[in-house]
């Protein structure tokens, strides 16, 4: 067991007492007579008395729940937990509450390379949501219908989503830089009725024309009845509806009363085989999880919140945590390094952002660039910095306290698309240790398990969650018997969620994430199944077979090598490498172009023909060649010799 990591920051007594978690604890004492000696005691109560904790979250935040039987958790099991039976609610109603009490305050600030800077008050936001909802109803969109969008992180996506939520339609979003194949792999599964899209955008000063890709996507969606367009690269075509005509109606918001578990949105988190997993989350579960997250992010209505995110990342969805607390959200849409790496920090200074979040990879780029934003900019409004997407190294922590502010609260989080939340993250009442997340989130029964299912402390094990959470998936779209959901999370430890991350829980209650424990690819927080890479690469006649692994481990840069078996008579030359990279870039996204492409003679496989991605990954992360795989279970055991030699070369 290692020694405790050095403390880099400790909150003042005043800062700790003014936090949302401190206020929640005082409320628990007054309302329920509950008092806890420290945070770990509070956490233990929250994962033991699930009824008491989640009903306290509902009551403390005065969430818009009505009806019900009075039962909080009808079935305490995973999968299949039943929360708040009979309750009705609406996610959009909570998010837009500030429009009633503070109509003239700023709800959204948009900084877009394509459209420039703009602001929306709460009244304007609510009015546009109401107008879009009215028009969606007029074209036949009702409860349960799917509305999909290909939009950047601007107010359009925010308004369109809230309009869908208000009427009970189900929302799904992809980023404009995603390839048409990857988008169709997602949207085809859910059979949408309406598509809302932008036909181009400006990135790093250049116009990216997406009209051809949009035509292909529209043609590939057989159930599509209407397309709403935000024209940038061209004009309206055929029967397309202009977005501007959807926002011109003056009307008041209406919120459908929906069952607690009515589907809210569909997000995608890929496994290693098959199509991306269409994960369905519910209105009530996301409301509860978001309210609780606001405690850990210490979000107040007076805050200005910004997370540097693509619209295709789950952190886009997480922006509604801040809106739900009445905070102003700053949407950044553009290249983070244009005209230089200071551009994002200029936005933080100019907009007086108080709570800012980025991918850990962005911090690494700032470190490598020798950036010191505090020397060039006034960051005095900034009091909290979050990171996620991949583990933030101890060097990254030290850079923040040196180059940003020695008195900032640094609060990295780790969770996932699967539950639209964090398992572990920050607490403004606790000290920050280098390379370590401060605590396990309230209500999240996070443990570290060894292969036999025993809980371990101070050692690296599998991240598991031993109790249900309201925001866990309701189901996967199209997974009628629930088998795919079960295989994704519950096949290793029956009845217990296995997330697919390596984690160490410290004796003090902190945690360190060491990267993915499975074959899922994680590039700057965006997760993708290896099957999507294979589909793009192996469609090329020059490629016979392939294997890809993502080497993400604490203290190292993420590195994704792609191993290919060239077709007979073909050499892996620079021209073929370029062709492979183009295929990945166009079909999926530039984010998933490999760091290196290496020729191999054959892909190692099991006797049943499965590619041995996880053993190769473990080997390349330093695993013992004799332990990472049983060669007797391999169809071609000699193929592993190449990877042993490659691992030695990379040391």
UniProtKB/TrEMBL annotation:
Domain Acetyl-coenzyme A synthetase N-terminal positions: 39-93
The AMP-dependent synthetase/ligase domain covers which part of the protein? 97-468
**Any one GO molecular function term:** ATP binding
User: What is any Pfam family matched here?
Assistant: ACAS_N
A biological-process GO annotation: lipid metabolic process
On whether Transit peptide is a keyword of this UniProt record, the answer is: no
InterPro entries given for it?
Answer: Acac_CoA_synth, ACAS_N, AMP-bd_C_sf, AMP-binding_CS, AMP-dep_synth/lig_dom, ANL_N_sf
Lyase recorded as keyword: no
Q: Which UniProt keywords apply?
A: ATP-binding, Ligase, Nucleotide-binding
> What protein family does this chain belong to?
Belongs to the ATP-dependent AMP-binding enzyme family.
Q: What is this protein called?
A: Acetoacetyl-CoA synthetase
């Amino acid at each position: 067991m290692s020694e405790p990591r050095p403390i880099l920051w400790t909150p003042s007594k005043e800062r700790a007492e003014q936090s949302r978690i401190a206020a929640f604890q005082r409320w628990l004492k007054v309302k329920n007579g509950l008092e806890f000696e420290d945070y770990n005691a509070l956490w233990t109560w929250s994962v033991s008395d699930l009824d008491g904790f989640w009903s306290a979250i509902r009551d403390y935040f005065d969430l818009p729940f009505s009806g019900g039987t009075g039962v909080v958790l009808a079935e305490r099991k995973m999968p299949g937990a039943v929360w708040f039976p009979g309750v009705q609610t609406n996610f959009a109603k909570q998010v837009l509450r500030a429009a009633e009490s503070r109509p003239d305050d700023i709800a959204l600030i948009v900084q877009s390379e394509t459209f420039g800077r703009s602001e929306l008050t709460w009244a304007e936001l609510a009015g546009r949501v109401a107008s879009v909802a009215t028009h969606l109803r007029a074209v036949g969109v009702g409860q349960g219908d799917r509305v999909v969008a290909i939009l950047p992180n601007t107010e359009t996506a925010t308004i369109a989503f809230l309009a869908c939520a208000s009427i009970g339609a189900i929302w799904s979003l992809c980023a404009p830089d995603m390839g048409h194949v990857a988008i169709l792999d997602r949207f085809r599964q859910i059979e949408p009725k309406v598509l809302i899209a932008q036909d181009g955008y400006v990135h790093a000063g250049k116009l990216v024309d997406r009209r051809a890709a949009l035509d292909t996507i529209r043609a590939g969606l057989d159930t599509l009845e209407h397309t709403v367009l935000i024209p940038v690269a061209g004009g309206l075509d055929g029967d397309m509806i202009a977005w501007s005509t959807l926002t011109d109606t003056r009307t008041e918001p209406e919120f459908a009363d929906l069952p607690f578990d009515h589907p809210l949105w569909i997000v995608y988190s890929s496994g290693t085989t098959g199509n991306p997993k269409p994960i369905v989350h519910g209105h009530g579960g996301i409301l509860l999880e978001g309210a609780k997250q606001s405690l850990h992010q210490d979000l107040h209505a007076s805050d200005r919140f910004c997370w540097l995110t693509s619209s295709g990342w789950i952190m886009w969805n997480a922006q509604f945590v801040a809106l739900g607390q009445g905070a102003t959200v700053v949407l950044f849409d553009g290249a983070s390094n244009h005209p230089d790496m200071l551009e994002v920090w200029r936005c933080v200074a100019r907009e007086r952002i108080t709570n800012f979040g980025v991918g850990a990879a962005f911090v690494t780029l700032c470190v490598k660039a020798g950036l010191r934003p505090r020397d060039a900019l006034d960051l005095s409004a900034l009091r909290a910095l979050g990171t996620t997407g991949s583990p933030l190294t101890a060097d990254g922590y030290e850079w923040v306290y040196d180059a940003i502010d020695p008195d900032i609260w640094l609060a990295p989080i780790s969770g996932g698309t699967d539950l639209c939340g964090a398992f572990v993250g920050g607490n403004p009442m606790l000290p920050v240790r280098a390379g370590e997340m401060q605590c396990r989130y309230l209500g999240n029964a996070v443990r570290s398990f060894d292969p036999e299912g025993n809980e371990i402390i101070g050692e690296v094990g599998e991240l598991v969650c031993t109790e249900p959470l309201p925001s866990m998936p309701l189901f996967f779209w199209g997974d009628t018997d629930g088998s795919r959901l079960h295989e994704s999370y519950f096949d290793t430890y029956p009845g217990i969620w296995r997330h697919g991350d390596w984690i160490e829980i410290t004796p003090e209650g902190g945690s360190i994430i060491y990267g993915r424990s499975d074959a899922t690819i994680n590039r700057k927080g965006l997760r993708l199944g290896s099957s999507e890479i294979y589909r793009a690469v192996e469609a090329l006649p020059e490629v016979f077979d392939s294997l890809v692994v993502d080497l993400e481990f604490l203290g190292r840069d993420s590195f994704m090598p792609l191993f290919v078996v060239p077709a007979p008579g073909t050499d892996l030359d620079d021209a073929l490498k370029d062709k492979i990279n183009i295929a990945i870039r166009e079909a999926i996204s530039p984010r998933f172009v490999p760091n290196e492409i290496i020729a191999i003679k054959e892909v190692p496989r099991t006797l049943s023909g499965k590619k041995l991605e996880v053993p190769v990954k473990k080997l390349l992360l330093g695993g013992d060649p004799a332990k990472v795989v049983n060669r007797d279970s391999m169809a071609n055991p000699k193929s592993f010799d190449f990877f042993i030699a490659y691992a030695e070369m990379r040391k």
